[in-house]
């Protein structure tokens, strides 16, 4: 089980953002005593769901800003 701090470090985000993602249910968590914990398998599943498909390109803007 990972702490919120460890989740934030693995995702390279702030602890406050990690807490928000956990509170919203985007990342599943468990409450143990008075602490939040995230299982490694749940975090890996979140990362897999968040992957962008490389064959789908973002639309290219035709406007040019000079």
């Amino acid at each position: 089980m990972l702490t919120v701090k460890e989740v934030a470090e693995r995702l390279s985000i702030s602890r406050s953002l990690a807490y928000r993602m956990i509170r919203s249910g985007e990342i599943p968590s468990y409450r143990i005593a008075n602490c939040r914990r995230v299982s490694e398998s749940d975090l890996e599943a979140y990362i897999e769901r968040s992957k962008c498909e490389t064959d789908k390109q973002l639309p290219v803007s035709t406007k040019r800003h000079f």
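The helical segments are 4-11, 15-24, 40-50. Residues 26 and 46 are 8 Å apart (CA to CA).
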